[in-house]
Write a structure and sequence with these properties.
The chain is of the alpha+beta class and 581 residues long. The protein has 17 helices and 24 strands. Helix 3 (48-58) packs antiparallel against helix 7 and helix 10 (258-269) packs across helix 12.
Length: 581
């Protein structure tokens, strides 16, 4: 009898499990059919607010590029992460992202920018669909939908910018030493303590727990970074410092009002002796840029909007000159706008006589960022042809707006037989974050990774494979003993070639310190007995406003508006907020 009961009980368990399985299969089948019916139908799955939020994220090219570039190969922004983001907004099924070629369904590999731009196009289609649906709503709803983003309309002259202060390009530091040039206060753990002028405080003294923060501010003065002895180690910072404790160190954020932030940016980004109208144009560009960054979340983990490096805008590297302060004040609240949003107001140091579009980054064009010629009296030449570019760059045009810049023309001598391990390391890093921008093949024509090359030996040849119409090298080939490397994206080309620079001369033939990055990708290659010589022009990426070009325009009598509308086409100069003081 006991045996029979045991069998009956087991059979009952099996029957129950079978019933549960049937129920689960039915539910899965029901959900699958429901998804299939709605896939591609944005109106049944996604609201215009969902699409606008996703599209706003994807439209921030530089922020997304930076996220993908800065992560290590062990901690990539993956397809799985991205899919989760889109699923939260009900966009994954609506736009049918699974149909994108090359999609990594395992979600383990790092996401490429090319995939991001393709997916953005799908979101853009949804964005257009929802916009069409909104046209059928009432006038009040349409007016509400056309309002500027809340984050943008909320910006005024008292808006705070949170700037992460990097140390050796890293967000965290082992210790923080701070003082002020006037009495100051420290607030932490519900305590407030007053310190005397120039009295140093060390973050470790506050005994912050992980996740806790302390605020340091001076009502009448500026705060400073110091060394362990209390000697000032930085310029003064307006606003306040926020010191937050993390497991691996401290993050230091300067919270400062937007116009005070701009004093530190314009002075750091453009020489104060430039013409007033050029300084004013720079102020508008810098303000436009930071307003667009305030609409994003660049450093949520560190409670910051931007950092103080070239990743965003260089900040507080020089004390504000009176001319800079006047230029910022004269343009208070002014930004550049297109289609109701701040433009991508890119700027750079010096052009070779022509600017570029975003094709040099492998990105889609923007209507307001088209190549312009630095001498409007001369018809632009198609510089995508090698011979045309060689002829052009060997000449100088004294009427070019950029002609006074030291790097208007330059010459670099490379030794491509050195620092091969550094080159290999850099290529590995590019592969890890942006695999679409580096292609390596062995001598049999097979695709390989940089880490697989056992012996680089000597690099043997450099070759320009592609140029843009403005003369930028958009694809560079390096021939090694074991194969070939092809690199795209102006930043990566400049970084790799920068490792090989032996000497650098400016337009006057003076030897200058080039650092470890080639001035620009506007060059041609000339093999010589001593190695390889690059003859080039320009300094920086070449997109948007040339700072030396702006100064050159101002010298001809152009005002701020002339300069801005020359470098950014079909944009509006708007007063985002008025001067309240």
């Amino acid at each position: 009898m006991k045996t029979i009961r045991r069998i009956d009980r087991n059979q009952l368990v099996v029957a129950c499990l079978f019933g549960i399985c049937v129920l689960l299969i039915f539910l899965i089948f029901f959900i699958s059919n429901h998804t299939a019916e709605t896939k591609g139908n944005a109106s049944s799955q996604v609201t215009s607010a969902d699409v606008e939020e996703a599209y706003a994220f994807l439209a921030q090219d530089e922020a997304v590029k930076r996220v993908l570039s800065d992560v290590s190969s062990e901690d990539l922004f993956t397809y799985a992460d991205y899919r989760e983001f889109l699923e939260q907004l009900h966009l994954w099924e609506a736009a049918d992202f699974e149909q994108l070629p090359g999609w990594d369904t395992s979600g383990k590999e790092g996401m490429s920018l090319a995939m991001l731009w393709q997916s953005r196009d799908l979101v853009a289609e949804l964005f257009e669909m929802t916009a069409e649906e909104q046209e059928d709503t009432t006038k009040e709803e349409s007016a509400e939908a056309n309002k500027k983003p809340a984050a943008m309309t909320a910006v005024d002259e008292h808006t705070k910018v949170r700037v992460l202060l990097l140390q050796d390009k890293k967000p965290l530091r082992e210790e923080v030493y701070v003082s002020a040039n006037q009495p100051y206060e420290i607030t932490w753990k519900e305590h407030t303590k007053t310190k005397k002028k120039d009295q140093m405080i060390r973050a470790g003294q506050l005994k912050l727990d992980i996740g806790e923060a302390a605020e340091i501010s001076s009502k009448k003065g500026d705060v400073y970074l110091t060394d362990e002895k209390g000697t000032r180690a930085s310029l003064g910072y307006r606003g306040s410092f926020w010191i937050t404790r993390y497991a691996d160190g401290y993050a230091l954020v300067n919270e400062v009002e937007i116009e005070d932030y701009l004093y530190g940016v314009v002075q750091s980004e453009m020489p104060a002796y430039f013409e007033t109208e050029a300084l004013k144009a720079q102020a508008v560009c810098a303000r436009t840029y930071i307003v667009s960054q305030l609409m994003q979340e660049n450093y949520p983990d560190y409670h910051a909007d931007v950092d103080d490096s070239v990743n965003f805008q260089v900040y507080n590297q020089a004390s504000p000159d009176e001319r800079v302060v006047k230029a910022v004040n004269a343009t208070k609240g002014l930004i550049l706008e297109a289609d109701g949003l701040p433009v991508n107001a890119y700027f750079f140091s010096t052009s070779h006589g022509m600017t570029s579009g975003r094709e040099i980054w492998g990105l889609s064009d923007l209507p307001y960022l088209q190549p312009v010629r630095g001498n409007v009296q001369v018809e632009p030449v198609d510089l995508s042809k090698e011979e045309n570019f060689r002829t052009y760059i060997r000449e100088t045009d004294k009427d070019d707006y950029d002609a006074s810049g030291s790097y208007y023309r330059w010459k670099a001598v490379l030794d491509i037989t050195t620092r091969l391990n550094d080159v290999k390391t850099l290529l590995c890093r590019i592969e890890g974050s942006q695999p679409d921008h580096v292609t390596i093949t062995n001598n049999d024509g097979q695709r390989i990774r940089a880490a697989e090359i056992s012996d680089w030996k000597n690099a043997q040849q450099l070759k320009v494979l592609e140029r843009s119409s403005s003369g930028a090298v958009t694809c560079l080939q390096i021939v090694f003993s074991e194969g070939r490397v092809e690199i795209t994206n102006e930043s990566y080309i400049r970084q790799v070639l920068g490792l090989w620079i032996r000497t650098m001369q400016d337009k006057d033939g003076s030897f200058v310190n080039a650092g470890e990055m080639l001035p620009s990708v506007y060059f041609y290659i000339q093999p010589v007995k001593e190695g390889i010589v690059l003859f080039g022009g320009g300094y920086g990426h070449g997109i948007g406003m040339s700072q030396y070009g702006a100064d050159g325009m101002a010298k001809t009598g152009a005002d701020m508006k002339d300069i801005l509308h020359f470098y950014y086409q079909d944009v509006e100069l708007i007063q985002l907020y008025a001067n309240e003081t």
